[in-house]
Please model this.
Amino acid sequence: ETSFSVAKSFVSTLVGIAIEEGLIGGIDDPVTDYLPELAERDPRFERITLRHLLTMSSGLGYTESDFPWPRSDDTYTYYGVDLRQVALERSEVEGPPGLKWRYNNYNPLLLGLVLERATGMSVSRYMATRLWQPLGAGSDATWSLDSERSGFEKMESGLNATTVDYVRFGLLYLHAGRLQGERVISKDWVAAATAAQTSTDQDNHYGYFWWVDAERP
Model:
């Protein structure tokens, strides 16, 4: 089964694991610490942190469309054949970070690049060794790529796994980062990732690439 946007929650989890391993310094690191070429193109990128990307409050512009129009950001981020280039060259700062919530596929693409550079391996390889195997997944998963030439995973939507293994991932969060007696990710990350963010105008429905039902206790 294809994950569609549930892939973003896996990306978020991998960021948390990389922070725990010390490969990423922290959630408030500027994205330019890992992708300095963004600052060379526009110094305002230095104000965008990993937290801003995870909470969809980066201040980056994004144009959605119900049909794959050639000039839509949806078209580039879903159908681009070199998503590294798309993320690094097409993302544009529209306003200050941390103020407005906007669902934006540049955010997971940029975090995928951060993971690549921080871990020294592909996102799918990092996931296999740090999440999928510790999770005790019953089947292999795959991650759709932008193209064979580029080989970059479609961070926004392209994970493919069995229904049972998606359930395992959900149970991992339900049990505060532990599954079958094994600690896979810290309970502090689970709590933060699934907490409603209060720093933007969308303060009751979103965590770190997780939709949050804030109306329930």
Observations:
- The radius of gyration is 16 Å.
- The longest strand covers residues 142-143.
